[in-house]
Amino acid sequence: MLSGISIFCFTASYGVALLLEIVRLFFRAQVRAILSVGFMAAGLIAHTIYLVGEQNGLVEAGPISSWHHWCLIVAWVLAATYLAMSLTHPKTALGLFMIPPVLLLLGMAYWMDQVAPFDPSNRVRPLQIIHGVLLLAGTAAVFLGFATGVMYLIQSYRLKHKMLQREGFRLPSLEWLQNFNRRTLIVSTCLLAGGLLAGVLLKIDRQTNSFPWSDPVVWSSGILFLWLVAATLFELIYKPARQGQKIAYLTLANFMFLGLVLAMILFGPTQHARSPKEQATHFYSLTPTIAQSEKGAR
Amino acid sequence: MKLQMIGLSHHNASVEIRERLAFSPDQAQEALKTFRSRFPDIESVLLSTCNRTEIYTAALDGNLCPTHHDMVQFWAEFHQLEAKDVFDNVLERTGEDVVRHLFTVAASLDSMVVGEAQILSQVKQAYELSTQIDSAGTLTHSCFQAAIRVAKRVSNETTIHKKRVSIPSVAVSDFASNVFDRFDDKNVLIIGAGEMAEETSRYLLDVGAKEFTVVNRSLERAERLAATFAGKALHWDQLHEAVIAADLIVSTTGATEPIIRLEEYKQLEAARFQRTLFVLDLAIPRDFDPRIAERVGVYLFSIDDLRQTCDKNRAAREREWPKAERIIEDETAKFMADLNHRATAPTIRRLKQRSDELKDEELKRLLNKLGDIDPRIADEIIRSFDRLVNKLLHPPLESLRDEAGSASSDSLLDALKRLFRLYD
């Protein structure tokens, strides 16, 4: 990879930033905050260089070439969002909630490295790109909603029990978290709906007779979408659902559904979006040697 | 160099005296101008707040500084008072004590409510006023700039400013601010029109609250309090409507029974659509049924909940106090060392320059007399002269450095100037 940067480099950088956020709970030092932002920024730069390196031949490969790449981009979006938020809310412990999802996605990207890439013939089709990008952005929004939902519940519990904020464990106000949660709920629903619609149009465009309903990614995504529509309608129609804890629970449930979809991609017998030539290769049936030889063949 | 301060504060003067001797912003400007015309070589800064009035003066030549009597006389004349009225109520500080005091004041460690943030902006305003009208000079510039920096350091390195100790301030800064992101769009309902309600409302006003509604059994008192915050007053029988519309409630009535029971709140809850409600029940006995705290979206704090937090904050502040004091001591020592260095540096420079001139003259004469000599011998002679001068100057300069900052520093510096005729 470009300049010898590997996933480990920026994962380690984000990991150190997380450790420094944990240190915030026990020690108060300005240098800690500077180091934390520094490691996060360094990780993000390395992450960007890695993605740019992987994007060599962007026109041929399309912006998202594999599940591995997809996870890396979602992680990049979350890391960049966190970095921006840590600069606007420097006194809050956002990192404790926002860096772990980034590391989780990087872990998934590492596992997915052995999963077959997306079908090259589809990757540059505009509808395919829209499908991929919208689903990616929707996933990032669900992750963000999950992190702020957890923060909301902790902050609410603390205030209900009259507990003072610890210096190292400050969280944004309930109102801010609630507004952020609402936005992520609506935005993620719209994005995922757009992504799924683009997927359906893609199938129609291909003029294939059969729709892959049995594909676990397709049906689990459909469930996620239906859930998001139901949750958003509930939120829009039933006024009390716009308030506080209910919206936090809705975003947590969104994440559970998203988790289901990602689990299907990781462990399910899906060949969604993969190259027909390589459909027989599934990551858990591969030995590292085969995976290596496939990479070499690409 | 001389720094001095004459002033009074809440520590040594009652509010009546503080009011009589205080300067309004316009008066402060006029006083500084008058002071400047009377003592043209003296730098001055006038700090006047509701809790303190202090006049800081400084001069590069200490002999020009006005005496304590001169300062008292000036102050008394300005306010058209008897000098005795001022003299009996003011304290004087000089030298290092002035620096330490100013740092302590700016860092809000000398304030009535320790840690309040307002004093730093008042110190800045006082300094800016002096700068604008050219009353500040080299010494006051460095002293006040250092004070502002020290205050920021204390604020950054300790939590002393973050720990509130009064019940209304804790309620607003430690709890209400964790519920609401902004207050300018929130409806604040004040039930009761007592002092506590007014004080809490002031804190809410400070954080941006704009919309106030006051409900009180006496509509007249409600109207009076509402007028203070440009709010509206409602009849007592409109209490339930007001609760439905409210985002934040401050309740301080003297009622002997709860004014909002759980059953009543349940009826109001549907009309509120479970919107977040922050309730500060500062009444004893309580105005809100404690079971209301269990309802969704309600954050109810009683006076006891807040008192516990105040006690915790007070203890935390006491733990932080030595750390803040260490910063003040450390910065005072650094500032004084720097100041003394600046005071002695010109004299040392002149002494070295004079010695070098003498050495060069004598060397020139000697080398001319000796004529064409071996360059190595000439070098040896030059080095020998250098060593001689350095050895001669070393003890007086060492003594000057050792004594820098001590009481005898000025007299030693003066003696050195006289002995070596180093006057300008």
Residues in helices of chain A, as a percent range: over 70%
Biggest chain-to-chain interface with counts: A-B, 25 and 24 residues
Largest sheet of chain B: 6 strands, parallel
CATH topology of the largest domain in chain B: Beta Polymerase, domain 2
Radius of gyration of CA atoms of chain A, rounded to a whole number: 20 Å
Assigned CATH architecture of the largest domain in chain B: 2-Layer Sandwich
Number of strands of chain A: 0
Structural class of chain B: alpha/beta
CATH class bucket of the largest domain in chain A: Mainly Alpha
Unreliable stretches covering 5 or more consecutive residues of chain B: none
What's the overall geometry of chain B?
elongated
Structural class of chain A: mainly alpha
Strand order of the largest sheet of chain B: 7-6-5-8-9-10
In CATH, the topology of the largest domain in chain A is named: Four Helix Bundle (Hemerythrin (Met), subunit A)
Overall pLDDT confidence of chain B: 87
Q: Kindly state the mean pLDDT of chain A as a whole number?
A: 77
Transmembrane segments (chain A): 6-27, 34-52, 67-85, 92-112, 132-154, 185-204, 216-238, 247-267
Organism (chain A): Blastopirellula marina DSM 3645
GO molecular function (chain A): heme binding
Domain Cytochrome c assembly protein (chain A): 72-260
Give an account of the 3D structure.
The complex is a heterodimer of chains A (298) and B (424). Helices cover 72% and strands 0% of the residues of chain A. With 298 residues, chain A is an all-alpha fold. Chain A has two domains: 1-118; 125-273, Four Helix Bundle (Hemerythrin (Met), subunit A) (Up-down Bundle), CATH 1.20.120. In chain A, helix 1 (7-23) packs antiparallel against helix 5 (95-112), helix 4 (67-88) packs antiparallel against helix 5 (95-112) and helix 7 (126-160) packs across helix 10 (244-267). Chain A is flat, with a radius of gyration of 20 Å. In chain A, 42% of the residues are buried. Residues 277-298 of chain A have low confidence and may be disordered. Chain B is α/β, with parallel strands linked by helices. Chain B has three domains: 2-162, Glutamyl-tRNA reductase, N-terminal domain (Beta Polymerase, domain 2, 2-Layer Sandwich), CATH 3.30.460; 167-310, Rossmann fold, CATH 3.40.50.720; 345-420. Chain B is 58% helix and 12% strand. Chain B has helices spanning 15-21, 25-38, 68-78, 83-87, 96-106, 118-132, 138-157, 167-179, 195-206, 219-228, 239-245, 262-272, 303-370, 375-403, 409-420; strands spanning 2-9, 43-48, 52-59, 91-94, 187-191, 211-215, 232-234, 248-251, 277-281, 298-302. Chain B has a six-stranded parallel sheet with strand order 7-6-5-8-9-10, sandwiched between helices. In chain B, helix 5 runs antiparallel to helix 13 (303-370), helix 7 crosses helix 13 and helix 13 runs antiparallel to helix 14. The longest helix of chain B has 68 residues, at 303-370. The radius of gyration of chain B is 32 Å and the shape is elongated. The chains are: A mainly alpha (298), B alpha/beta (424). The A-B interface holds A 28, 30, 155, 158-160, 162, 164-165, 167, 171-176, 178-179, 239-240, 242-246 and B 156, 159, 162, 174-175, 177-182, 273-276, 293, 296-297, 299, 301, 305, 308-309, 312. Chain A: Pfam families: Cytochrom_C_asm (PF01578). Chain A: The chain crosses the membrane at residues 6-27, 34-52, 67-85, 92-112, 132-154, 185-204, 216-238, 247-267. Chain A: It comes from Blastopirellula marina DSM 3645. Chain A: This is Cytochrome c assembly protein domain-containing protein.
